Amino acid sequence: MPSDESVFSAAVGILYVTCPLIFLYLQFCTVPYGRHARPGWGPPLPPAAAWFLIESPTIWLTLLLLPHGRHLSHPLALAIISPFLLHYLNRTVVYPIRLLRSGTKAGFPLSVAAVGFCFNLLNAYAQTRSVTHYAHYPPAGDVGWWIWARVAAGLAVFLWGMAVNVSSDLALLRLKNTAGGGYKVPEGGWFELVACPNYMGEAAEWLGWAVAASTPAALAFFLYTCANLFPRASSHRRWYLQNFGHRYPPSRKSIIPFVF
Ligand SMILES: NC(=O)c1ccc[n+]([C@@H]2O[C@H](COP(=O)([O-])OP(=O)(O)OC[C@H]3O[C@@H](n4cnc5c(N)ncnc54)[C@H](OP(=O)(O)O)[C@@H]3O)[C@@H](O)[C@H]2O)c1
C-alpha cells in the first residue's frame, strides 16, 4: 500500500508531466464542446449537467479531505483554501444554473466530461492536500507580515480574475439568450481587447492563487490552466474570424490584451 505522501507526490507529478503533453495535443485538436462540438466523442449530456458533474469533485472531495489536514485550523491554510472553494462553488452550482437559463443547447460529449471529471478529482486532491496538509507554514502566531503581504497580493489578483471571469461568463450567457441559442459578436469591456475575457480572468485567478499558496501543486495548476485555455482561446478567436468575417475586429487578441 503506497503511503499518503507518495500518492500526493505522484498526483502533483502527474500534473507536471501531463501539462506540456496536453498543451502539445491542444495545438492539433480543439476539445469538442460548445462551438467546437463535433460527432464521434460519445453521447451528448445537457451542458448544465455536464458542468455540474465535471466540477463536483472540487466541492465534495475538497470537503471530504479538509478534516484530514494537519493545518486545517491554520489561518494561512484557511485563507488559501477558501477562495478555491469559492471559485468552485460558482463553477459547480451557480454557473450550471445560469447555463440552464441561457438557452445553451449544444450537447456536451460524455468522453470530454469524463476527462474533466478525472482531472478535477486529481487536482482537487492535489490542491487540498497541499494547502491543508503538506505545505510548510510558520506557527500560526508567528506568520511574518511579508507572508501575509504575499498572500494578500495573490488573493487580490485572484479576486480580480474571478470578477472578470464571472462577469464575462454572465455577459456571454446573456448574449446566448439574445442570440436565440446561437452566437453574436460580444461587445464592450474586455471583449474589445480579447476574444475570451472569461479565460483571461480564469488564468489570472490561478496565477494569483499560485502566488498566495506558493506550493508546487498550485504552480502546476496555474500552468495546467494556461496549457488548456491558451490554445482554446486561439481556437475561439479563429472561429470568430471565420464565422463573422469583417464583423469581428481582427485587432482583438485571444486571451492577453495586445499580446496573444
Ligand atoms: N480551468 C480550466 O482549465 C477551464 C477549462 C475550461 C473552462 N473553464 C471555465 O469554464 C467556463 C466556461 O468555459 P467554456 O469553454 O464553455 O467558455 P465559452 O466557450 O466562452 O462559453 C461560455 C458560454 O457562453 C456561450 N457563448 C460563448 N461565446 C458566445 C457568443 N459569442 N455568443 C453567444 N454565446 C456565447 C457558450 O455557448 P456554447 O457552449 O454553445 O458555445 C457557453 O454557453 C469559463 O469561465 C472558463 O474559464 C476553465
TrEMBL record:
It comes from Spirodela intermedia (Intermediate duckweed). Pathway: Steroid biosynthesis; Hormone biosynthesis; Plant hormone biosynthesis; brassinosteroid biosynthesis. The lineage of its organism: Eukaryota, Viridiplantae, Streptophyta, Embryophyta, Tracheophyta. One of its GO terms (molecular function) is 3-oxo-5-alpha-steroid 4-dehydrogenase (NADP+) activity. This is Steroid 5-alpha-reductase DET2. Gene3D superfamilies: 1.20.120.1630. One of its GO terms (cellular component) is membrane. Its EC number is 1.3.1.22. It catalyses: a 3-oxo-5alpha-steroid + NADP(+) = a 3-oxo-Delta(4)-steroid + NADPH + H(+).
